[in-house]
Amino acid sequence: MELIFAPFALFAGFPFLAIVPAILFFRLWWKARGRAGGRVILLFGVLPWLAYTAYEAAMWSWSRGVIAPIRVDLLLVAPALYLLTAVAVFAAWPRAR
Predict the structure, then answer these.
(1) Based on the number of CB atoms within 10 Å of its own CB, is 48 exposed (0-12), middle (13-18) or buried (19 or more)?
(2) How far is CA 71 from the centre of its chain?
């Protein structure tokens, strides 16, 4: 279980790193011009990661003001981001013709 949440522990400590997956999915979205359906699904990779970056930055500033921040929210956020990331990766995967 610890391995599953390890990337999010990194993002909790350094919230600006959460922008990296958003940038990667945006680049894939930009390159997928010919596939209309694939472009829409790739937005499921870009937008949640952008929202998570802003949310994590807000939570990081909040955690600096409390003594012992307990991040139970990551139990819901992490699986949702994993699922949306998997959907976006599957949409970006090149299909055999």
Answers:
(1) buried
(2) 17
Residue 1: pLDDT band (50, 70, 90) is low
Which residue type is seen at 57?
A: A
* Long-range contacts, 69-76 (Cβ 8 Å, 24+): 71/12, 74/5, 74/8, 74/12
| Global model pTM greater than 0.85 | no
What Cα–Cα distance (Å) separates residue 66 from each residue in 8, 60, 81, 94?
A: 19, 10, 26, 46
pLDDT 10s digits, 78-87: 888 888 888 8
Nearest to 18 by CA among 47, 43, 50: 50
